[in-house]
Design brief:
single chain, 139 residues, mainly alpha
Amino acid sequence: MCMRLLQTVFCSTIRHVNTNISMSDPQSQIAAQAAGAALPTGTQIYDAIMGEIEPELVSAVIPTLEDTYKEETADEHEARMKRYEEAFSLYDRCYQAYMDKLTGEVRDRKRSARAESEQHEQAERDQEAEAVLAQIANV
């Protein structure tokens, strides 16, 4: 179940971050991210995950639970608390899977960025060396 939730939450988080960013223009990506493409808040992440597990436990609903369940019996209350405990347990596992995936993707992007940067620097050094060799050949 966590993997399905993870995919749903991660995709909605990425959509939130990537809104209006052109994938074909790296400069527009940087500008858009700096200008207003904010990372999701803790509440947004919590609600995205918990909303798939137990909708009664999302941030907007929690304050209404006392009123919603004011007439429940002791047995009903105990069953609901057990359901909530199971929901929080599943939430913890799904949240950890989400963070592991996100951490891995950030680590992979950092590695790719470093490799791209090194390749670019090497290409510049190669061009400079070729220019020097061309000058020497013309002398």
